[in-house]
Design brief:
The protein has helices at 2-8, 22-37, 42-49, 53-65, 93-112, 158-164, 169-182, 186-194, 197-207, 258-282, 285-289; strands at residues 69-71, 78-80, 116-121, 129-135, 151-153, 210-211, 230-239, 242-252. The protein is α+β, with helices and mostly antiparallel strands. The chain folds into two domains: 2-87, Arc Repressor Mutant, subunit A; 93-289, GAF domain (Beta-Lactamase). It has a six-stranded antiparallel beta sheet with strand order 5-4-3-8-7-6. A two-stranded antiparallel ribbon has the order 1-2. Strand 3 and strand 4 (129-135) form a beta hairpin. Helix 2 (22-37) packs across helix 4 (53-65) and helix 5 (93-112) runs antiparallel to helix 10 (258-282). The longest helix is centred in the last third of the chain and has 25 residues, at 258-282. It is elongated and about 70 Å long. InterPro entries: ArsR-like_HTH (IPR011991), GAF-like_dom_sf (IPR029016), HTH_MetabolicPath_Reg (IPR050707), Tscrpt_reg_IclR_C (IPR014757), Tscrpt_reg_IclR_N (IPR005471), WH-like_DNA-bd_sf (IPR036388), WH_DNA-bd_sf (IPR036390).
């Protein structure tokens, strides 16, 4: 449980020299256990957290006094208080997805070293881009472009292609019609002029992953073309309700080829995307973002 908490709630921006507070860690162990089991007795909490009964009693008393936990009047079992939802009720589905994805992206970066990110379609903000929600660009030991790009080109990026390829035909047609009518992004216009989007998406569906369009070298959404020295591959985030985003891994083109990246890193990227999608579906986030 302790390891799970550290993975889920990792203080990624803090140095190792900063020590954690043991009492707070233990309190969250109890809160997580109550969230998992809905309600529990002291004996059940002792079994599932590994904490001793005296320690649990002190923690439960503290949590009850601050209003985080209550004890049922009838069954005398402990439960998390409803008011804890107030801390997260202002989070949007996008915020929740970023929170869910962060530990998986962190694990992926630790394993492959290159940075990754997740994004969703900017359907409520114009529709001709992907919106990057979370990234490990600041964690990679390699030299990469660390420009913060909240908006990513839709039609030529790996992330956009991975998302678009999994849409139903009607949804895809609606988005593409909107892009053709209203987009002023240089790379979207370039993709339309190239005329190869349909064949590219077919290839993505067949292979299960997407690469950047050969003519897309980077650059900020809505800005001029700019070679960032990177290449990327992306896989979709899919739940029962449909596709709701994409996970992307990027690398320096001078360091490794696309073929090497696919061979070495695609399985890990797919595994991370599958885990993110499963957790997002479990928490009801995927349904609110699915297309």
């Amino acid at each position: 449980m302790k390891q799970m908490l550290r993975t889920t709630l990792s203080g990624r921006a803090l140095p190792e020299s900063v020590k954690t507070i043991r009492a707070v860690e233990r309190s969250f162990q109890v809160l997580h256990a109550l969230q998992k089991f809905k309600d529990a007795s002291v004996a059940e909490l002792e079994l599932n957290t590994g904490l001793s009964r005296p320690t649990l009693l002190r923690i439960l008393k503290t949590l009850m006094e601050v209003g985080a936990v209550r004890r049922g009047l009838k069954d005398r079992r402990f439960r998390n208080r409803v008011f804890l939802d107030d801390f997260t009720e202002q989070l949007t589905p996008r915020d929740r997805l970023a929170d869910i994805a962060a530990p998986f992206l962190e694990q992926l970066c630790a394993a492959v070293k290159w940075p990754s990110m997740i994004g969703v379609h900017g359907d409520h903000d114009g529709g001709d881009f992907m919106l990057a929600l979370e990234s490990t660009a600041a964690m990679t030991p390699f030299y990469v472009s660390r420009l913060t790009k909240r908006r990513v080109n839709l039609l030529m990026s790996a992330q956009g292609a991975a998302f678009l390829a999994q849409l139903e035909k009607a949804q895809l047609a609606l988005i593409l019609d909107h892009v053709r009518r209203y987009s002023h992004d240089y790379h979207n216009l370039l993709a339309i002029a190239a005329g190869d989007l349909e064949s590219r998406l077919d290839q993505v569906r067949e292979s299960g992953y997407a690469l950047r369009h050969p003519r897309y070298l980077g650059g900020a959404y809505g800005g001029a073309a700019c070679d960032d020295g990177m290449n990327s591959m992306a896989v979709p985030l899919i739940a029962e309700g449909g596709v709701f985003g994409a996970a992307t891994l990027s690398w320096n083109r001078k360091a490794i080829t696309a073929k090497q990246a696919i061979k070495n890193y695609l399985p890990q990227l797919q595994q991370a995307a599958k885990a993110i999608a499963a957790e997002a579906e479990l928490r009801g986030v995927a349904d609110r973002l699915s297309r």
